[in-house]
Amino acid sequence: MKHGRLLLHLGAVVLGMFAFGFAMVPLYDVICDITGLNGRSSTVTEQAKVVNEVVDANRVITVEFTTTVNGGSDWTFASEQRQVEVHPGELTLVYFNARNLQSRDVVGQAVPSVSPAAGAKYLRKTECFCFEQQQFEADEEKRMPVRFVIDPDLPEHIDRLTLAYTFFDATNLASLGAAR
User: What distance in Å separates the CA atoms of residue 9 and residue 4, rounded to the nearest whole number?
Assistant: First the structure.
């Protein structure tokens, strides 16, 4: 009898773990939408649409860029500018440079995030190297664009946004996708 209760409890724990793991994907999507993590501050359709906003020339927003290379990856990765000052509604183009320092071909992927979280949904990227994996030959360097606009509805108390990218080696992920 004692072992039967233990098996019942262990079975409930296994089912609970399975349900939690199954629920993680939609939960992660919701968290990313709310916080702007992973560049998902709004739907892809909203981000990719051409923005025809009226430029607010009376307001200036500072957009800072930070870059990180995931540990153990042999890359250089940096923005060409530390920051830009833009008017809400103004389409802005900036560039990032990445270089594969390895002697083999690899695939790179950048994961974006925007902070503060309250301003993330107002930064709309219309073009970004982070939308797709990037193929790099051995010792190849690429200049990669990001085109964005700040929505004029950005709350008045926000005058600075940080667009951060973490670049990592996605060669194994790319080969898994190709195998399907």
Answer: 9
* Residue 142 bridge partners (DSSP): 98
Residue 108: exposed, middle, or buried by beta-carbon count in 10 A (0-12, 13-18, 19+)?
buried
Strands 123-128, 106-115: pairing kind = unpaired
How many angstroms separate the CA atoms of 49 and 45, rounded? 6
Q: What is the DSSP-derived secondary structure letter of residue 50?
A: P
3-class DSSP state of 179: helix
Q: How far apart are CA 92 and CA 146, in angstroms?
A: 8
Q: What is the DSSP string of 85-115?
A: EE-TT--EEEEEEEEE-SSS-EEEEEEEEEE
User: Model-level pTM?
Assistant: 0.70
Average pLDDT by stretches of 10, the chain with 180 residues: 79 76 62 56 44 81 94 86 95 95 91 92 92 92 95 94 92 62
Round the CA-based radius of gyration of the chain to a whole number and report it: 21
